[in-house]
Structures are given as structure tokens and as C-alpha cells.
């Protein structure tokens, strides 16, 4: 179900030298509507809502990494968080602090606001003066048992999801994956409910000995009783004076039974009614003090009630207000998050994984706003607008205005001399054209993924997930037919030809005809003034060049790239490569000297206004060059377009990768290079590094993988590692857990007693990556709730549970053992695990080592429901501070 194959060595860090370019953002940003009406605000995924006595409403946005405040006049501002996921700022202004997926919030009578900073495994408090500090979590002492009774700030929480405060100022915390609920009183933390093990038991007995399962929302009544949304047990439980019970069913005839599907939020109003949000069930329950239950159809992750009896329901991108008479209205949020700004300054716009950029002769900038399913144009005046696509992933609209024609994950855009736009409509398996008059046409592809049609009309040919497109001055259009491992050309008469690639994934053919050469995941394309075609041969970590006579060669410096995506050639012949794996823009001058034009190698955002080589990029995917030599970069994972302006200083020299002696080592899931985490599954490629006949896993003892198969061993700092597979060109191995804490590790492959290859890898705490059905990107390897494989033709239902697989999660509890197949208990990652589907958090129900596997993380997650929209959606896994590879998708109904 998953693929152990992977390609490419480690990324190439930049160096701290003067840069040849300065960098600035020209389109895209994190504008969320602060300072304006709440109705126009943008939210990623609302997970918490609270109301104070003054009528201020507080909202936590887990995707936006902010906590926002709506004042009674309807104006919204950020109270805490910068919008960037991380941890920083304690002791300073909350608006300058980084949060990481904040969930539940609660306000006390003194004006303090408590935030369940889930991704940081902390609870933080914003004081009335606006300063923030951690009050629980962030320590090293596991709570529960002997760990109770200590300072809350010394406790090690797993994933604090929700918080509540009682009238005496005591704080309650639900530790979602920790399977406990805690009380913090006078700074001391104790367990209120839960044993730390998921289950259902204990009603009528001591709450601290009862089993709960993924506790979420909390609320305290006027008597001091604590109510717990026991989400995975589909019930509400009440803890009072040390005892726990499940709230009973209602008397027949008084209303529906209280049987929420997945309760996540709780709140009491002034009349003593308990409000319960059941997001998966699409409704809110109200239980009056006598136990009678009524239900309102309204999806919500959390609820809060004010003194006037209004109830606020937070879900997705909206906050809904329900009056005491039952009248609902949306009072905050447009429902969008990743798309905004048309008609205004491009710097205030929202982009969503922009995949590519292009320029026309007048200097207008075009953006393939991939996950917004649109092509957008930034005028020379800096105004942005949509020129193609509706925002809905679909196909249609040929012959109509392009703004009424839907696209599906457009990978790139190009402009010809006549002003026609060409779009790689990747998800529709088509190449589209927007004429200079603004009309949409299909120029290649039938919509059915496949390969045929060479020599005939392109409109009748099959293509497969075309990713990049470019056009020359003679009316020829070239596109990367990525799924077919080819580059194809459409001549002015509409006839299609293959110009590079045999259709077989691999590397071969240099020095010969390009149509007889093998490519591996061709992506970016560019043409120089002479008509030579440059191809980002991503899987082969090369830029290939097809000459005007059809011969193919590799551009100098093969082996220095990690995952080239976009490529551009200047008028002077300089080549620029957007390397998504190293998070850098790599430059090769006409003397074949490689250097870093932008990016320090870290996957982050920063550096605007300074030297580009010291700035941070995140998965850059394309480049365009204007007549002045300015570079425009699709900084995909930062949802921005960055401009590099040339200066007069020398570029940073390229630092050589820590790879030697012929080995290529990558994460087995992502097929990308990078630092290695303890326990991570790696693929090693080389020549003559193992037996000519493939050897599968063997066992040194029951349930323990052998460290030698087929006369092959892999040594990490001299110690043999557990092997899954070995053959002449590939070995799959588990990185030992013992490398934790090291700066780097020496890796040696020993075949038949002799050294067959050697490399040095940087060590990191986590390096998460998702297994996909092919090549580390695209459709994730996932099971739907019914056990069938997830696919576009078999999507998962909103609110259902899916199972996915990953590696690189790092150290576990109990501690992982090298090559030992997981059993009972299944080790769980020490770092918190988060999963985002289409920019919305999914509820993690299980995140532990897959049974009977080694180094394989299994995640069972409930997909969002309610306002959450389906489609082919991006899927992102976060473990601690590490994020999975870009470009992974899941199909949701």
C-alpha cells in the first residue's frame, strides 16, 4: 500500500555570504481582516469560542495560528499569535508571540484569557495588559500518578485541546491524546479524570480511575461540577466531588436523546442550560437544568453563551450567532481563508499553494493559484484579479469567459507573444488556453489520464497530469506531461508530438535523442533565446537540456539539486532553478558555476527587505524572469510570490551536500532528501550496493528485523541497522533510534564485506513524511472508514475516519526499539501530531506505530465536517516542528 522507493540526497544549505539579490513579497500575505468588520474576517478553522462579561467574543483559529477578539462594535483584531506556527513570545506582547494550532479558549472574571496551544503542548494565558506566558505544559514531568501535585509549568502535556475556568479561578485542561483531564489550582496540576489510556469505564466511581477517550470540550456549572465532552465515547460525562457519571437519556416525550456523534465543545448559559457542539453530527444540543434536550441543526466545533442568552457557534470559517428565539445569523467570517483580495493590492491577497508564475510582454504577472483552482493576474499597478477559474475544482466552461470556467489544481501558466494564456490544468488532465479575448478553450487532453495521440490533433490526445507549460515566439507550446514521464509539444497547427521521454520512469539517454531518453517526474520547463529546451527532471535531481536538433544532455552540476521544480533562463544564458527540497533558488552562470540566489535552506518565511540568500523560502516551485533581470518566485508553501532584485554583490557559493562515495539517501515516503530522524525509514540508492537478486525482510528473532540480508549491511556510526530490503541499486533501512541527539551520523553500506558506499547525514528530532501511491506526491496512501482505498473515484465522506501512514516521527513512548515490530502497546510519537486536510485540522483518534510494522506511523483521523468542503484536498502532517512534504492530496466527498 505504500512505497519504500525514494530518490535524491540531502538538501543544500545556503551560506552566510553577501547576496546577489534582495528579496521582497509582491503578492500574497497573511491579511486576515484585522481592524475591520468581523463579517469580512478570514478564518482557517475556528476551534474555540469564548465570551467575557463585557461582551467581547474571542475566537481561536487553529489553521491561522491566531486568537482573535471581536469587540461589541463588531470590529475584529488579533489578540495573540503572529499567524506563523511556532512557539515564542512568553513574557512579551501576545500579538508578537507564535502559537501553534490553538484550540480551546476560556476567559475568567479578571480579564485573563486562557489558550490551549495544542501544537506547542502548552496552555498559555494572555493577561489584561496583553502579555502572554505559559501556565501549564512545556515541562518534562509526565502528569498522572506520581507526577500529580507538581507545578503545572513543569508538566509534560501531550495535546491540550480545551480549557475551562470555574468561579474560583481554577483552570481545567483536556489533554486530548493524553486521555486525561487536569485541574490547575494555585499553579499546581492534578488529574481530575482519566487514566492516560483510551477507553470507557468508571461510571459511578472515582473520576481519576475512569477511562475516557479523547476528551475535548469542558464546562463548569454553578455548583462546581465539571462536564467533559468525551468525544470518542460519544457522550458527555460529569465529574463532581471526585466521582464521574455519564449524563443520562431524556425522559420519553421531552426531546431527543443526548447521543452526540462527536461532542467537541461545551458551554453553560446564564439560565443553567448546557450547550453541546456536535460537529460530526451537524447539530448543537441544549440540555436544560432538568435534563430535557433539544437540538438545533448547526455544525460547530465549539459553542459559547453570553449573558443575554445568545449562543455563538464556531466552525470552519464562520462564527454563527443564535438568538434566544432560535434565529441564526453569521456574524464573523467570509467562509474563505485561502482566497481573498481580488480587486485590491496583491500584497493583501490570499494565495493557496501557488504553483507557478509567468510574465507577459507588458510586465503583468500571472499566478497559477493551484489550490484555489484559479489563474490570477497582478497588474503593473499591483492590483490582483482572477482571470481564469471559479475556485471550484471541476471541468467546464469551454467557449465561455475564462472566469466562468472551472479548473482543477492548475499547475502552471504561460503567456505567448499574442497574449494568450496556456494553463496546465493538472487535475483535469488537460491543457487549456485563455485567448487574448478572455475565452476558455481546451487545446490538449480528453480528461482521461493516459498517453496517445502523437502526430494527431492535441485536442484528441490523452495526457496525464500535466504540470508545467511554456510557449516560444513561434507559436509552439511545450508542456510537461508529468504522469506520462514525457515532455510534449503542440505545433501551431494543433498537432502534438513528444519531444523528450520514453514514458518509462528513470534516467538514461544523455548524448542521444531526447525522445529515446528516460525522465523521472519532469516538471518545470524553460526556453533560451536559441530555442534550447530546459527540463527540471525532478526525480533525477537534474536539469536536462534538449537542443534544437533534439539531442538531450544534463546541465553541468548534476547531483547538487534536491528536487528541482521550476527552471528559468535569463537573456544572458544564466539558469535559475527552484529547488523545493532545499528551499532555495539555485543559480548557474554561463561558466557552469553554481551558487545560491535565495534561501538559507530552512523551510520558513522571512527575510523580506534583506539579502535573498539569507531569507527563508518554503518549497519554492517556479521562477519567472523579467526584462530587467528581476526574478519572481512562486514560494508555494508560504503562499506568496517573492521578487528577487539583482544587486552588485557576489552570490553565496553553493555548499556541497553531505554525501560522498556514490550513495543517495532520502526519506522513503517523500522521496526527498533532508535530515534524518530516529526510527525513520530511509531508501538508499547506488550502484552495486546489494545483491543482484532482491532480498526481502528477514528476522533475527520473532518480530525483530535482521540487520543483514543478501550479504548486505548498513552501518550507522559503525552499528548495523535493521533492513527491510536489499538489491543491487536500492536498500531500505530503518535509522537507529540511538542517533537521537547527534548532530550528524556516518552511514556506510557494506556488501560482501567490502565498503560499497558512504554518506554523512544531518540528524534532526523529526522529519515527517506521508506515504503516497506514487513518487512521494499526489494521492496519499489511505484507507477510508470502510477499509477501501481512498481515491478520486472512491472519496472519503466528510466527518468519517481515514487511516494514513507516515514515517519520520522521531522518538516514541515507550521508546522505539530498532527493527522491532510494533505490538501491544504500540509506541506513540513523543512530539504532538497534527493533521490538516484542505487547511482544516482533522481530529486525531490514533497516532501510534502501525501494528506489526517498524518505523511506520499509523494515523486514524476523523475528517472535518460541517462547512468543510470536499474535493481533492491538500493533506499536511505535522509532528512537533516538522511538516510533511508538499503536494500530497486526499479525496473527500
Written overview of the protein:
- By secondary structure, this protein is mainly beta.
- The chain has no helices and 75 strands.
- Strands 63, 64, 65, 66, 67, 70, 71, 72, 73, 74 and 75 form an 11-stranded mixed β-sheet that branches.
- The radius of gyration is 28 Å and the shape is globular.
- The relative contact order is 0.10.
- The model is unreliable at 1-19, 249-256 and 648-660 (pLDDT under 50).
Structure summary:
The chain is about 0% helix and about 40% strand.
Strand content: 35-45%
The helicity comes to under 10%
What would the average pLDDT be, to the nearest integer? 90
Question: Which word captures the global form?
Answer: globular
The Rg value, from CA coordinates, equals 28 Å
- pLDDT < 50 stretches: 1-19, 249-256, 648-660
How many runs of DSSP E, i.e. beta strands?
75
Q: Structural class of the helix and strand makeup?
A: mainly beta
Q: Give the N-terminus to C-terminus distance in angstroms.
A: 22 Å
The largest pleated sheet is described as:
11 strands, mixed
Number of helical elements: 0
Oligomer: single chain
